[in-house]
Design brief:
Helix content: 55-70%
Order of helices and strands: HHHHHHHEEHHHHHHHHEEEHHHHHHHHH
Shape: globular
Radius of gyration: 24 Å
Oligomer: single chain
Distance between the termini: 41 Å
Length: 610
């Protein structure tokens, strides 16, 4: 599960980012459980290229019996298992170094094959949907389909949005084209864009990059932060029209998909698959907008503590208690995270510890061409993998590690307690598992310190995380809503329109006491998730649920419901899954609770900082 939230990335004061071949093997992930060699991947690719064509033998026969339907579903499952291994391996290799021609070629070649596979299988959904209701109900009661009941019920929900066989073929052919804007923006920002070198406050020349620029915003020198911000966004300004065009066409693609499949809007199309009511999305925006006061109070506190005449976006990352920043090597970070997760039980901690220490689940450090940020990804039959750009001189990266292993252990538990067809959980619940771990890490650090400065530092860290996850991601979610609404109304989506919409949101979400630089309007062009829309709101809902669940586990000492949540995978839709775990996201209550928690933390931080 992919999670690319911005974190307080930091770099050592070295002069260059290493190439991939200069990274020590023990600091990289071990992908041999998926494919031992590239030749094995190629053999798997060639096998899939032959095997998928056999699916046509069931065409026209799916509705003849439950047994026949079971046969074709099992065959499709075998294809999906192969595809998952091929896709994840190719994706992980590309993430290691997206400037490597072989990695690019492998990924592109697979995309081409998967388009052919999707086209060849496109008839299956419509043919299942064509089974009349009485016969379909009879099939579901047959033991031959006992493991397929849940996915078949979910598929049946899509009946109103499933097209004819010929139309489904066209949609399958268009799949890689519609997804291409995300790839194009990523290549431009991660590979082609060059941010240059910059002399820092220590007199050292540092290479500026997507991964490293935040480190300079952590420095106490306000002038360095301003120069970093301006130099970084100068590169986006140089590519602003290309990025605006890419984002515009990505949104057009979302609207095309929704209209082609008869959804009322692109947003409803995105939420339908998880059975998340639009009211959940709207409740989030309305609840956050009604609770700006503690946010503005915190921004004013930050301005006072830093002794700033004006507060800018580049002043939001420097620690308010800078002397508490320390060096935490990766192995020490692993120990710290494992200790904080002890409330989840011995099995959780033991499996995770072995994965990080012995089995090389994690690709640890930045190298040239490596994807920025962090994520967790894996397959049903193999270990979960974590991509990091870990920097030892910032505590924020320890939190990133806690976050990503939350995804990884969610996958581990799900794969061992669900069949393949229901193990893949939705992002809506994925973000609960990851941010829950961050909550436990915060509580552990607060519980184990008697240093008021360090306590203030951790409180500030949690406040900034809630600000960045609930307030900021909700602003992003509102941007996606407004831009898609504009496209659906036939309004133009130009660079000026993007800037205008985004500036209006910045003014609302930061308040009148905040200085908005013109460059910040371009931020809407550099957020990767905007090129694959209606994802970011799940960060905000996820953290809100995580805060409530963490409070429950710590108060009761009972993690059984939470572990049951991890084990449930995708066996139910997100809202009832979380209700069983103890939170009801169909109401504003969890968001309101999280924002009250935020307000309390701001009050405590004000008291500690005098």
């Amino acid at each position: 599960m992919i999670s690319v939230r911005e974190k307080d990335d930091a770099i050592h004061a070295n002069t260059a980012i290493p190439t991939r071949d200069a990274v020590k093997i023990e600091d990289t992930w071990d992908l041999t459980p998926v494919f031992v060699t590239l030749a094995d991947w190629q053999a798997g690719f060639e096998k899939l290229a032959v095997e998928f064509q056999k699916i046509t033998q069931w065409k026209g026969r799916v509705g003849t019996s439950a047994g026949t339907l079971g046969e074709v579903l099992e065959f499709e499952k075998s294809l999906d298992l192969s595809i998952e291994n091929l896709r994840v391996y190719a994706s992980l290799r590309l993430s290691e170094d997206s400037s490597d021609a072989q990695n690019l070629a492998r990924s592109s070649k697979l995309d081409g094959l998967l388009t052919r596979v999707s086209e060849a299988c496109s008839w299956l959904g419509p043919e299942i949907q064509a089974i009349d209701d009485a016969k379909f109900a009879h099939f579901l009661a047959d033991p031959a389909l006992s493991e397929w009941t849940i996915p078949l019920r979910k598929l049946r929900r899509l009946k109103a949005h499933t097209l004819s066989t010929a139309e489904e073929r066209i949609m399958a052919l268009a799949g890689s084209v519609l997804a291409g804007f995300d790839d194009a923006s990523g290549q431009l920002m991660d590979v082609d864009m060059q941010f240059g070198m910059l002399t820092d406050d220590r007199g050292q020349t540092v290479e500026l990059s997507q991964s490293s620029w935040m480190s300079l915003l952590l420095r106490p020198d306000a002038e360095l932060r301003r120069r970093t911000f301006q130099q970084f966004y100068a590169e986006f300004d140089a590519h602003k029209f290309t990025l605006a065009s890419t984002l515009s066409h990505s949104i057009k693609g979302d609207v095309f998909y929704a209209r082609a499949r008869n959804y009322p809007s692109a947003r409803e199309a995105a939420l339908f698959r998880d059975d998340v009511p639009v009211a959940v999305y709207d409740n989030l925006i309305e609840t956050v907008r009604a609770n700006f006061t503690p946010l503005f109070r915190y921004l004013e506190l930050r301005k006072r503590v830093l002794k700033l005449d004006e507060i800018h976006q580049y002043d939001l990352f420097v620690p308010l208690v800078p002397k508490c920043e320390k060096t935490t090597p990766f192995d020490e970070a692993t120990d710290l995270v494992l200790t904080s997760l002890a409330p989840l039980g011995a099995e959780y901690v033991s499996v995770l510890g072995d994965g990080l220490r012995k089995h090389r689940w994690c690709d640890r450090y930045e190298n040239k061409g490596k994807r920025s940020g962090a994520f967790s990804s894996g397959t049903f039959a193999n270990p979960p993998y974590l991509l990091m750009n870990y920097k030892a001189d910032v505590l924020g990266d320890v939190y990133t590690l806690a976050h990503e292993v939350g995804h990884s252990m969610h996958s581990w538990y799900s794969a061992r307690n669900q069949p393949f067809q229901t193990y893949d959980y939705p992002i809506f619940t994925a973000e609960v598992a990851s941010t829950f771990n961050e909550c436990l890490l915060t509580e552990h650090l607060l519980k184990t310190t008697d240093d008021p400065k360090f306590r203030a530092y951790i409180l500030c860290r949690e406040i900034d995380d809630i600000r960045g996850t609930i307030f900021r991601q909700t602003m992003f979610a509102e941007f996606e809503k407004l831009t898609h609404d504009a496209e659906e109304k036939g309004e133009p989506l130009t660079l000026d329109v993007f800037r205008s919409i985004y500036r209006g949101l910045l003014e609302a979400y930061f308040g009148s006491g905040f200085t908005i630089d013109g460059e910040l309007e371009l931020e809407c062009l550099r957020i990767p998730h905007f090129y694959s829309a209606f994802y970011v709101y799940k960060y905000a809902t996820g953290l809100s649920a995580a805060v409530a669940l963490a409070e429950q586990v710590l108060a009761t000492g009972d993690a059984s419901k939470f572990l049951g949540f991890l084990k449930s995978g995708g066996s139910e839709f997100p809202i009832p899954t979380l209700q069983k775990a103890g939170v009801d996201m169909s109401t504003p209550a969890p968001i309101e609770s999280a924002l009250r928690h935020f307000a309390k933390r701001v009050e405590e931080l004000e008291a500690l900082l005098g």
